Amino acid sequence: MQAASRESYRAAVEHLTTHTRGAQPDAVVATANDLLAVAGLLRREPRLRRALSEPARSGADRAGLLGDMLRGKIDAAALDLLATLVSGRWSAPSELLDGAERLGVEALLASADAAGDLGEVEDELFRFGQVVAAEPALAAALGDATAPVEQRAALARDLLAGKARPVTLRLVEVALSGFGGRSLAGSLARLVELVGERRDRQIAYVTVAAPLTEDEERRLGARLAAIYGREVSVKQTVDPGVLGGASVRVGSDLYDGTVLRRLNETRNALAKR
Predict the structure, then answer these.
(1) By the 8 A CB rule, do 65 and 82 touch?
(2) Side by side, which strands form the sheet with 253-256?
(3) Which residue of 39, 70, 161, 212 pairs with 100 in a disulfide if CB–CB is 3.0 to 4.6 A?
(4) Are 65 and 49 a contacting pair, CB within 8 Å?
């Protein structure tokens, strides 16, 4: 997002924080679902996106237009949050869409936080991403943008039945819709990172040839926490193809100490002789 859009989004998030403080998790989920439903409407209706982000209209005018359309159709809390969102300044209609979708996700995370489930939701999203990545046919079926989202969501619900919390299932549906215009894998990874941010943790993606022991994982997390100045959630992926060592990605930082990398470097150096 550009600066003006970030400021408008930040104001809506502050309003969301006030609204969810002390609220029951189920009530917050209902608000989140309404926010995501409106984000879906904005995705389908580009003319509406433009009207609700038009800089020539006042913020009050845009909020009034939204209220005329949605009053009585979504809960009052969601309408109030969306009014705050659209009354701000947006650099582009697409950024308003991103803001509405992100606000719905933040509401889901707030409900999981209130229920004490954030850590579990983070792990469930990551494990689901690993399962999908390990099965090319499944990844193709779930990532097929030509198939209806509800059809793909039904498949995901079958896979996760009894294995994941309702908020995790709802976030998977958001990922299947292409959260922020990303692929399914990219959407799931971004959602894991957002859960980590809410827990004030950095996410470290670690690829190893064999699983780390609990002690090794703890020591790696402590070392990374010392570097980044905050707690770190270590997410392991086991790939025998790296042969040994570890590859660690934290945000845009990549530390590749795998045997495979060293072999490739040696091979490339020999090829240049």
Answers:
(1) no
(2) 231-238, 201-208, 246-250, 253-256
(3) 39
(4) no
Question: Measuring CA to CA, which residue among 251, 174, 169, 248 is closest to residue 208?
Answer: 248
Give the burial class of 34: count Cβ atoms within 10 A of its Cβ; 0-12 exposed, 13-18 middle, 19 or more buried.
Answer: buried
How many Å apart are CA 64 and CA 39, to the nearest integer? 17
pLDDT band with cut points at 50, 70 and 90 for residue 270? low
Q: What are phi and psi of 201, to 5 degrees?
A: -125, 145
The three-class DSSP label of residue 204 is: strand
Full-model pTM: 0.87
**Token pair belonging to 48:** 């509406």
CA-based radius of gyration for the chain:
21
Residues 78-108 have pLDDT tens digits of: 999 999 999 999 999 999 999 999 999 999 9
Query: CA 199 → CA 59, 120, 142, 172, distances in Å?
Result: 33, 12, 28, 19
The residues that bridge with 246 in the sheet, in sequence order, are: 208
Measured CA distances, 189 to 26, 79, 215, 240 (Å):
25, 29, 25, 22
Secondary element (H or E) of residue 268: helix 259-271
Amino acid (1-letter code) at residue 46: P
* CB contact burial 237-273 (16+ within 10 A = b; e otherwise): beeeebeeebbbbbeeeeebebebeeeeeeeeeeeee
